[in-house]
Amino acid sequence: MTAVPTRDRIIEAAAALLAEGGREAVSTRAVGAAAGVQAPTIYRLFGDKQGLLDAVAGHAFAGYVRSKSTLARTADPVDDLRRGWDLHVGFGLAHPAFYALVYGEPRPGVETPAAREAAAILAGQVRRIAEAGRLRVSEERAAHLIHAAGSGMTFTLIALPPEQRDPALSVLAREAVLAAVTTDAPTPTDAGLVGHAVALRAALPEAKVLTEPERGLLAEWLDRIATAD
Does residue 208 share a domain with residue 106? Predict the structure, then answer.
């Protein structure tokens, strides 16, 4: 039998403690006892407790991020985003302690590697909608709104007893957000000024005929149009 590497053994021990007792249960002493190592080993491998928690979050989120990044694309990027939303909420309900570890204590300017990877996938989904001319707002505003609504809904459902969780709540929130940031009519005549600006902004990196400073200036103009209230 192949021995489990020390780093993996520590992460697995911390993950088990987290699932059983929440963040408070993941003390250096408890993790060391469960993994059969001394505290200096944990500090050497992870730097500090936050480093260990970040590693645990990455371990827990690996399967979710992999599932989200490998979702088969369809011809409808908005529908693909729907499936991404459902996957996100489903993961949170299945693994509430890990979800809270990643999203439960936001720190300004600080983002765990797991949250950063998930955000990059969401940004890619929003970019596809923008490229299709179906985004009503800027990509950044859409991504922030979708994430805020999705995580808020997930925490709301987590807080409810399982027998009181109404699956329709997530669907209602999802469709309300999509209605606010997307359009069902991707035709040029229906896109509107903001829709045109967002679509062109998404495609701007492909405009090789422009110099980099010219693309930067045009990007600034398009961003101002897309975020104008």
Answer: yes
Task: Verify that 36 and 64 share a domain, yes or no.
Answer: no
3-state secondary structure of 182: strand
Question: Rounded mean pLDDT of the chain?
Answer: 85
Residue span of the structural domain in which 18 resides: 1-47
User: Which letter does DSSP use for residue 172 in this model?
Assistant: H
Q: What is the pTM of this model?
A: 0.73
Residues 6 or more apart whose CB falls under 8 angstroms from that of 194 comprise: 136, 137, 225, 226, 228
Q: Is residue 219 within 8 Å of 201, Cβ to Cβ?
A: yes
Residues 6+ apart with CB under 8 A from 32: 38, 39, 41, 42
Give the pLDDT band of residue 1 (cuts 50, 70, 90).
very low
CA neighbor of 137 nearest in space, from 157, 129, 33: 129
CATH of the domain at 181: 1.10.357
**CB of 99 within 8 A of CB of 91?**
yes
Tell me what the mean pLDDT of segment 210-222 comes to.
Answer: 78
- The yes-or-no verdict on residue 187 having pLDDT over 60 is no
Q: What is the CA radius of gyration of the chain?
A: 21
- State whether 21 and 52 are in the same domain: no
| Residue 76 burial (10 A CB sphere; 0-12, 13-18, 19+) | middle
pLDDT average, residue stretch 188-208: 67
